[in-house]
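In this section we walk through a basic example: taking a raw amino acid sequence and producing a predicted 3D structure, encoded as discrete structure tokens. The instruction is simple. Fold the sequence below.
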Amino acid sequence: MTDADPPKSRRSGAKRAQDQRRRERIRSKGRVEHYTAEEIGARDGWICGLCRDPVNQAYQHPDPRSPSIDHVRAIAVGGTDTRDNVRLTHWGCNHERNASTPLATVEEAEVQRAVLLQIPTLRAYAENLRAEDMVRRSQAVHSPERYRAKLARRVERYEREKR
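The resulting token sequence is shown next.
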């Protein structure tokens, strides 16, 4: 590789290592089920589990509107790779969500707040948090309207750049 060549092999090597770590996390969680995007799409009525808009099978990756499988509880935080933990989404919505999961209860917020209190640089911030406010903000961040708006911006950029 010359200095003029892009560092493609390093990127793909890093991607391979990331994929390997993900596969190891999946295997360590126990049960793994094999499923297809078509199977999950049919089960979910071809509706995105995040923005609640229809998902069209005709779109292909890297189009942000293309079908994608999202783990409801991310593998990175202990979710399993099973049918009951996946849903159909647009690739753009799934990418936007990343590994963040909305807080559903005050108890979940209290657990998260307790973790933040243990981090010296975040202690002062966490002391002023109220669990109810944490749940409300989390639900707002993960609202279908917000995912819809972010997907629209991704689609606009995708079409403008003519990838």
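Looking at the output, two observations stand out. The longest strand covers residues 67-71. Residues 133 and 143 are 15 Å apart (CA to CA). In the next section we compare this with other chains.
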